[in-house]
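re the bet — no i am not wrong, look at it urself. input seq straight from the record:
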Amino acid sequence: MVARLNRNSVFCGALFGILALALAGCSTPEEKAAFAKRKQAPQAVVVKSANGSPVDEGSTQQHYKDGYPSFNAPPTAANVQINDQQAADMVKQMTALGAARKAGSISEAEYQKRVADMRKLAAEHGQDTLSEIQQQSGQPGQTQN
């Protein structure tokens, strides 16, 4: 019985050893190099602005030596945030418009006209505000597509 147990244990040990080597994925140095290359982080690409001018380096975003952004300092806002009162006024206005539509006090055409006006404002407000700021600061108006 003891001899049989030893033979089986040797056989099982050898089988597990072979299985471990197969699972370890013995590979050539070329395969290891290709695997390491796939695991590397991609190279950073510096993209030019839409109009071809150099990217504005005057931003307050901090960067590490390797070029990646640092999030240690909070970014500054591009513009002033709306306050709670302004947000509540907008919600009231849109809620009243929806309620008027549901109650039938305005026609569907009038509702669609007001919605289209709001969407137009949303689409054009940013560019209009940028033009206004550039005029106030004396910069020539530049548009980006």
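see?? The longest strand covers residues 62-63. told u. also The chain has four helices and two strands. so pay up
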